[in-house]
Amino acid sequence: HRYSYSGYYKISGKIGTFPVYIGFSRGTPAALVEKFQSTFDELRRTPEDGGISEFDQILSSWLLEEGLIHMQYLTEGYYPYTFREDGVAKGISVDILQYIFSRYDIDVPDDHFVFDTWEDVYKRTLTRNGTALCIMARSPERENLFRWAGPIDKTPIVIFCLRESADMFRNISPSDMKLGTITDDIAATALINAGGRNIVYSSDPRELITMLESGVIDGWVYASMPGYQRINQYASDPSSIVPVQTLKTYDFYFAFNQNTSAPLVQSFQDMLDVIRTEKDTTGVSMYDRILYRYVKPENSDSSITPEEVIDLVNQTAADLVRDAPGTVKKINAGLSPYQSSEKPDLYVFVYDTEVNMIAHADNIRMVGANYHNKTDVAGTPFRDYIVEGALANGTGWEDYIYSNPIESGLFWKTTRYQLANGSDGKQYVVCSGRFRNNPE
After folding, report:
1. Over the stretch 371-405, which tens digit does the pLDDT of each residue have?
2. Can you state the percent helix, strand and coil of the chain, rounding each to 5?
3. How far apart, in whole angstroms, are the C-alpha atoms of residue 115 and residue 117?
4. How far lies 303's CA from each of 279, 309, 310, in Å?
């Protein structure tokens, strides 16, 4: 429950901007100070090639706002994470970046968002300082090639085939199919790892979709959501192309050039963590709000069972009856059993009867806030429903949309609640939930 300086505090306003100097003692020789100033001025000089000064490079290595201003953000266009609409960069990754810019009150020019082929932006980020990919799958093969911040979301890599041959290809190994994929794309890695041998590479998704429609290849391997968008954009009959196999699901991250300073990337990661956990006045995190603009909630990979949730709620309620103050402290410390060490998305949280958050084993930031009339991202005031249900019925279940601490994305969640009479004479509503792993 510890948060870094860069993420814990939020700028609420600026009083003014003041210059900061290096001060020398009065006894320092004037010639030495003048020499230092001359060297300092040289550091600030803009290179003739139009790059940034050495001074700005130093600031960009340590101060997130300076690094963000000078960074180039590269992408191929990967809907819904990055795309252009009327010439303006949009998408989940872009919206996250723009929100971080706003938190630091900085303005990053539109021309710092660069769209090109995947092959080009991938190689450019590998080789050029001051660059970052807005969206890229993190894999063991790429781990040491970049610095990472995220995750942003997760997306499966699938094989798209013609609908007329879908039934046949659902049960055929990728090793026995002729498949197309984008050069250097994560889909190519997933395909090779799945045994693919007869592979056609291209830098152009349109070319591969055309080859699929004309029967030159059996299937096209690409990420699911971006793939659907490309098919709708380029296929002569989008409804004729369907996914038939899922090869692997990857978490997608921001990826920075390897020479980007570790403190800067860590500061960026800290701010991403804030975006995921900090709730606004309506009770919704900015991360949830951004995702909901572009994607629908999905079912989770969580293995938590209803029985585990019920057992945790029952135990916590009994602990509050026995020792309410001590139990609240342990919950807020994230101690076992109130948050499972083996399944971190199994945790307990507690309201009072006025919908104030009294304890939360996973997100201490939420404790002390009142959540009356605050909703999930779809507008459901689920916390009010939970407290009302507990007061009326003692126990029950409530469904809503929420983000999972161990998975990227938006998920359907169902929460068990139970009214408990604490040892301190107060009433508590004890809750624990599970992120659903199948339609219910």
Report:
1. 999 999 999 999 999 999 999 999 999 999 998 88
2. 40, 30, 35
3. 7
4. 26, 11, 15
Fold of 306-435: Beta-Lactamase (3.30.450)
- Distance, in Å, from the CA atom of 293 to the CA atom of 410, rounded to the nearest integer, reads 11
Q: In what order do the strands lie in the sheet with 241-257?
A: 113-115, 72-75, 131-137, 241-257, 146-162, 219-223, 178-182, 198-202
Tokens of 11: 């700028």
Angle, vertex CA 112, rays to CA 97 and CA 132, nearest 5: 60
Domain parsing of the chain, residue ranges: 71-277, 306-435
Record the pTM.
Answer: 0.79
Q: Which CATH number fits domain 71-277: 3.30.70.920, 3.40.630.10, 3.40.640.10, 3.40.190.10?
A: 3.40.190.10
Torsion 396-356-7-93 (CA) sign: positive
Peptide bond into 174 cis (omega under 30): no
Over residues 428-438, the pLDDT tens digits come to 999 999 998 75
306-435 shares the fold of 71-277: no
